[in-house]
Amino acid sequence: MKIAVDAMGGDHAPAAVVRGAVRAAEEGLAEIILVGDASAIERELKALPATKKLEVVHTEQVITNEEPPALALRRKREASIALATRLVKEGRAQAVVSAGSTGAQMAAALLILGRSGNIQRPAIATLLPTLQGPKLLLDAGANVDCRPEHLYEFAHMGSLYASKILGVSEPRVGLVNIGTEAAKGNEVTLAAYQLLKEAEINFVGNVEARDLPRGVADVYVCDGFTGNALLKFGEGLAEAFFIKIQSEVNKSFTARLGAALLLPTLRRLKREVDYAEYGGAPLLGVQGISIICHGSSDERAIYNAIRVAVRCVQERLVESLGLLPRINSERKKVEDWQG
């Protein structure tokens, strides 16, 4: 198995990306192809005591977060994310991993790999830490505006991912809404509720944002605007929580003494809410494995993202998603319900 890694993507590239890739290669997860500026990559590789040689595909073009994704891809056809994605399309790699521009990676996946099977809207599926362990949230930002049948798609894709990759038997699927009652929500969620109620998945109804950390479902479905806002609010809240604890601990000797006793527990808790533990988020619904990493990913996050990519390949996720039921037929159900 070969994994193409965008060595130039992310706030800490190429150093953190190369270190994470080398660790994955050293542990035998997969063969790694690093795509980016060869001189910069080789400089990082020489600084590491690696025993396995990594393949390097050279390019000097990089797409930044400030550039319009689709336009940048047309102007920079040899950009690192484009080349890495093309390796998957050509069968030279089985997955691509990047911590670079999310928009550019989504555009590359759509334009180069194409959509999978009957999927209309690919979605970013990310893991959220909860009291019941990590749960899946999608869409986390690929689709700001959605129609009811798109949420229906997300529910099917999320259910399949939770089953095959996370090992959850009969995953519970919840629709993120402003209330748990079936009559709550806007036109999109009201229509989506009716579709999901009749779908061949384990739909448990509406869930409110405050219930997400409790793990009341295994898959949370929402549009990309809502999902991205929830995700970033959660990251900020976790960071603020630990900053507040540190501030309180430094106020007295007694507090510092108590913190010392709780240190192993606090470290374990911090790991559980750290995005780096979960690696990357797969873009579900494209004809290939594309793993999107946090822009500030460190070595551990890149390593874990490669681990996610390997798992997706092993479980033949793309082939399974291609067999999902045709979603277009659900549009008439929406129109009938609304009319």
TrEMBL record:
<keyword id="KW-0963">Cytoplasm</keyword>
<keyword id="KW-1208">Phospholipid metabolism</keyword>
<dbReference type="GO" id="GO:0005737">
    <property type="term" value="C:cytoplasm"/>
</dbReference>
<keyword id="KW-0444">Lipid biosynthesis</keyword>
<comment type="subunit">
    <text>Homodimer. Probably interacts with PlsY.</text>
</comment>
<keyword id="KW-0443">Lipid metabolism</keyword>
<comment type="similarity">
    <text>Belongs to the PlsX family.</text>
</comment>
<keyword id="KW-0594">Phospholipid biosynthesis</keyword>
<comment type="function">
    <text>Catalyzes the reversible formation of acyl-phosphate (acyl-PO(4)) from acyl-[acyl-carrier-protein] (acyl-ACP). This enzyme utilizes acyl-ACP as fatty acyl donor, but not acyl-CoA.</text>
</comment>
<comment type="pathway">
    <text>Lipid metabolism; phospholipid metabolism.</text>
</comment>
<dbReference type="InterPro" id="IPR003664">
    <property type="entry name" value="FA_synthesis"/>
</dbReference>
<dbReference type="GO" id="GO:0008654">
    <property type="term" value="P:phospholipid biosynthetic process"/>
</dbReference>
<protein>
    <recommendedName>
        <fullName>Phosphate acyltransferase</fullName>
        <ecNumber>2.3.1.274</ecNumber>
    </recommendedName>
</protein>
<dbReference type="Pfam" id="PF02504">
    <property type="entry name" value="FA_synthesis"/>
</dbReference>
<dbReference type="InterPro" id="IPR012281">
    <property type="entry name" value="Phospholipid_synth_PlsX-like"/>
</dbReference>
<keyword id="KW-0808">Transferase</keyword>
<dbReference type="GO" id="GO:0043811">
    <property type="term" value="F:phosphate:acyl-[acyl carrier protein] acyltransferase activity"/>
</dbReference>
<dbReference type="GO" id="GO:0006633">
    <property type="term" value="P:fatty acid biosynthetic process"/>
</dbReference>
<keyword id="KW-0012">Acyltransferase</keyword>
